[in-house]
Specification:
Blueprint lengths: L4 E7 L12 H6 L6 H13 L4 E7 L7 H11 L3 E6 L4 H14 L4 E6 H5 L1 H6 L5 E3 L4 H12 L10 E5 L2 E4 L35 E4 L2 E2 L16 E2 L2 H13 L4 E4 L8 H13 L5 E6 L6 H9 L2 E9 L3 H6 L6 H13 L3 E8 L6 H13 L4 E6 L7 H9 L6 H7 L1 H4 L14 H16 L2 H9 L4 H21 L1
Parallel strand pairs: 1-2, 1-3, 3-4, 4-5, 8-11, 11-12, 12-13, 13-14, 14-15
Antiparallel strand pairs: 5-6, 6-7, 9-10
Helix pairs in contact: 2-7, 3-4, 8-9, 9-10, 13-17, 17-19
Length: 482
């Protein structure tokens, strides 16, 4: 009997992650979400080549798989291809994983995919121990690559795929994306241990993520979204996936879309379908404040919506315009009030260090953050990421002196020893901005009124214990930042 073509999908360990403003303790407290991208890829391969391909997923951090354990898994599974997820802050571990795979089996092929590959395809492919890259949404392109490897053919003319030939890098210029999302199979969650995935803010123990759309039609200057081709799944397709998740006993859902509420009507339609099918979930999503209505919130609440994460960013209309957010302060106030009036938890995300922002304006944002009536607040320093309009502007204006992300991408393993990502430090220093994060958290979370409110709305001993533990971690982070 012919041996199956084994593909090992790997989310690498995070021993060498590029440090941002949060400590590892705080990152850990945020919980872990399932590797939905890898689930889509593995499921798609399994559906299209069921008798030829055997896929396995290793999600190293939640599975507590270090490099030693990963070496043993590779040796035992004997993959023909290792497909590794990459993000720029985690690229060092991705490349160390590629090295480990080749050391374990010199014949194994290594492919990289993910956001870092999208931003730096040539640099990714040029790295030692990397045989292929797959840009963009990789379901179809990875399938074609696997077919080429099986038949010992050169992977020419596969959209978004790159490979090495006679010492040269050959990279297709296209960016693949799936036009009809309903054509994709429902991710096979039997490929992972679902009990490993939780969210600190969630009401239930286990959380599943669902993508109801791909892409984003908005153009915020700080955000990198490779394609503006916004595509939505039909309501029927979403409901079918929710039914499969329900069969697994999972009762917490996070809609992982870049933008779930592209319109209030769409959220209302999904909510009403969930009610009609008697699907009992506690669910949440990332949303924009300009697409919120009372009718939508009422339907969503009845369908089990517990929480909405809003990208608020700042309290200043001029700054909102500066980052092309296409919202106003009045929209923010209205959306948060409607959310709270409908007894849905409102989470607000804020950024400090925006172009032209002064220390006084940051304190104004902190006051706005407290006055809004949010249930939770998240604060970050504005960090220009690769391929964003903001990063290009920072380089053009000299706010950032050199293309440090590209320099890091060219030699990340060596570069990691001295690398430190830069922020938009126009009015305030990087050190001062990071210190102000802790000021904002202290002002928001350590108010006696907030502590009392938070305790009164706690629903279970588990939730209380989780909040107390998270509070201690946050307190430690605040003290560390002083």
């Amino acid at each position: 009997m012919k041996k199956p073509f084994r593909v090992l999908f790997i989310n690498p360990p995070l021993d060498n992650i590029v440090k941002m403003e949060m400590s590892e303790d705080v990152i850990e407290e945020m919980g872990h979400y399932p590797p939905l991208g890898l689930l889509y890829l593995a499921t798609y391969l399994g559906e299209k080549m069921p008798s030829e391909v055997e896929a396995r997923i290793v999600d190293c951090v939640p599975e507590n798989v270090n490099y030693e354990k990963l070496r043993a898994i590779i040796a035992e599974f004997k993959p023909v291809l290792c497909a590794i997820t990459t993000f720029t802050p985690t690229i060092v571990d991705a490349l160390l994983t590629a090295k480990l795979a080749k050391e374990t089996d010199p014949c194994v092929k290594v492919a990289l995919g993910g956001h870092h590959v999208d931003s730096y395809p040539a640099e990714s492919l040029a790295a030692e121990n990397v045989d292929y890259i797959c840009k963009g949404e990789g379901e179809e392109s990875l399938l074609q690559l696997v077919k080429c490897i099986i038949s010992d053919k050169t992977p020419d003319n596969i959209t978004g795929v790159g490979y090495k030939k006679d010492g040269r890098l050959v990279i297709d210029d296209g960016y693949p994306f799936i036009k009809d999302l309903d054509s994709l199979p429902i991710p096979d969650r039997g490929l992972i241990n679902n009990n490993l995935y939780t969210c600190t803010l969630g009401a239930e123990k286990t959380v599943a993520t669902v993508m109801s759309s791909r892409g984003c039609p908005y153009t915020c200057t700080f955000c990198y979204c490779p394609t503006k081709n916004y595509r939505m799944r039909t309501v029927g397709s979403i409901i079918a996936e929710l039914k499969e998740i329900s069969k697994l006993g999972i009762r917490e859902i996070f809609f992982f879309d870049d933008l779930f509420n592209v319109s209030a009507e769409r959220v209302t339609a999904i909510s009403r379908a969930m009610i009609k099918e008697n699907l009992k979930f506690s669910w949440s999503f990332r949303g924009r404040v300009n697409n919120i209505t009372d009718e939508m919130l009422k339907a969503a609440k009845e369908a089990g919506c517990e929480r909405i994460h809003y990208g608020i960013e700042t309290s200043d209309n001029e700054r909102l315009n500066r980052i092309n957010k296409k919202i106003t302060v009045d929209m923010i106030k209205k959306a948060v009030k409607l959310t709270r009036d409908n007894k849905v938890i409102a989470v607000g995300s804020f950024m400090i260090g925006l172009p032209g922002e002064t220390k006084g304006e940051i304190y104004k944002t902190f006051r706005f953050m407290r006055e809004l009536g949010l249930d939770y607040a998240q604060i970050s320093v504005l960090m220009p990421y690769p391929n964003t309009a903001l990063y290009k502007e920072a380089l053009e204006k000299g706010v950032i002196k050199k293309d440090f992300w590209k320099a890091f991408a060219e030699n990340p393993i060596e570069g990691k020893k001295t690398f430190s990502p830069e922020v938009w430090a126009e009015k305030l220093s990087q050190e001062e901005l990071f210190r102000l994060i802790n000021v904002g958290y202290r002002q928001f979370y350590m108010r006696p009124s907030y502590v009392l409110y938070s305790l009164l709305k706690t629903k279970s001993p588990k939730e209380l214990a989780s909040k107390i533990h998270a509070a201690f971690v946050l307190l430690k982070e605040v003290i560390r930042g002083e």
